[in-house]
Specification:
The protein has helices at residues 11-34, 38-49, 55-62, 66-78, 100-121, 126-145, and strands at 82-86, 94-98. By secondary structure, the chain is mainly alpha-helical. The two termini are 20 Å apart.
Length: 146
C-alpha cells in the first residue's frame, strides 16, 4: 500500500466513479423511455420488491434522503404509478404500493437494467463475477461496521 493519496487510485473514489457512471448510463435510458428520475426509479424498485412500505422505510432502503423520496413519491402518485393509503392506526403513516401502471414501469425498467448489467459484465468470466460479488459483499459488510 502507498501512503500517498492519489485520487484516481483511491478505492472509495473509484467505487463512487463506477457507481455514478453506471447509474447515469442506466438512468439516461429509463429517463428517455419511462420519464423517470433516479429517485423515482429507486422508489419503484423498492416497492416492486417490498410493497406496503412507508416513505420513511423507502428512504432507508434506497439510501436517499427523505426529501428526495417525498418528491419522488408525490410525482409517482400524480403520474398514477404508485398508490398511497393511510394506515388505520396512524393516519400520519402512509402505505405505498405500485399501481398496475407502476408494475408495468417496474418490469420495463428492470428488463432494461438487467440488460445493461449483462452488457457491463460481458467479457468477465463466471469466476470473476462471482469473486467480484463476494468482494463487494465483504467490503459492504466492513463499511457498515466502520
Amino acid at each position: 500500500m502507498n501512503d500517498e493519496l492519489i485520487l484516481d487510485k483511491f478505492m472509495p473514489y473509484r467505487l463512487a466513479r463506477l457507481s455514478s457512471t453506471v447509474s447515469t448510463a442506466v438512468a439516461r435510458e429509463y429517463s428517455k423511455q419511462f420519464g423517470l428520475s433516479i429517485p423515482e426509479w429507486r422508489v419503484i424498485a423498492i416497492l416492486g420488491r417490498s410493497p406496503g412500505l412507508s416513505a420513511v422505510e423507502v428512504a432507508e432502503q434506497t439510501f436517499l434522503d427523505k426529501v428526495a423520496v417525498s418528491r419522488a413519491v408525490t410525482k409517482l402518485i400524480k403520474a398514477g404509478r404508485i398508490d398511497r393509503q393511510f394506515a388505520d392506526a396512524d393516519r400520519r403513516r402512509s402505505i405505498l404500493n405500485l399501481s398496475a401502471q407502476g408494475h408495468e414501469v417496474h418490469d420495463g425498467v428492470a428488463e432494461l437494467a438487467l440488460k445493461f448489467e449483462r452488457e457491463l459484465l460481458d467479457g468477465l468470466d463466471v469466476e470473476e463475477v462471482d469473486r467480484f460479488d463476494k468482494v463487494m459483499d465483504r467490503l459492504l459488510e466492513k463499511a457498515n461496521k466502520l
